[in-house]
Amino acid sequence: MIDVRAFTVGPVQENAYLVRADAQATRVLMIDPGEEPQRLLDAVVALGVQIEAILITHCHFDHVGAVAPLARATGAPVYCPEIELSVLADITKWTMPGFGPFESWQAEHAIKGGERLRLADMDVEVLFTPGHSPGHVTYAIDRANTSSDGTAAAGDGERIASGDGESHRSVGQPALLSGDVLFQGSVGRVDLPGGDWATLERSIGMLMSRFERDTVVYPGHMGVTTLGREWDANPFLAELRAAAMGSAPAQTGAQGQR
Questions:
Q1: pTM for the complete prediction?
Q2: Which residues of 62-84 are buried (b: 16+ CB within 10 A; e: fewer)?
Q3: What is the pLDDT of residues 41-79, one digit of tens each?
Q4: What's 219's domain CATH number?
């Protein structure tokens, strides 16, 4: 069962994640280091692990503000959505007034969705999920031939039950590191440059149809959730639910098991 540890950083309260194959693994993936690079580096030292790669879901400043100092300090390569490479390379241009300063970075790897990566003894599938931003991706991460653990962690690595106090376990399903696509009771905003509601809705619909209800979602903000919980209760998914109710064929995944 993979080990996922969450660190809520910066004034926008973004969730950065350290993900490893299990609680004893010494190689980790860093997902969306938004701010507080020293705090994240201290957590790495405290856990006795090494960052093998830094994965970015999208390049809004609150998700990439600590990329440069972490990459420089650890030597870990950065995987960035291809469409948003220029944003990471000139982050100041895209930072809202009152935030930063942040340092730009030239990513070592460009991704666009459809890739399957093997990193830190985990299988990482890259899913193209635009709508909140033009190049947004979601990472489906699993340890090969094992189930995924939905238990998250807060603070500096203190393990806690996720979200509403449940300890989620996604048997046979990967964990979804969803960035700003889907939140607990909400979805990513679409009023920023490159945002589009219809596109975001299609991205969420793809995740719902592709993965099972008990699939655990680790979002870029707020608490950990599951696809099933959001399908049942998220008010922003009302149109998707209505469309699924009106479709005759039985569907798999979260929609088909409503």
A1: 0.85
A2: bbbbbbbbbbeebebbbbbbebb
A3: 999 999 999 999 999 999 999 999 999 999 999 999 999
A4: 3.60.15.10
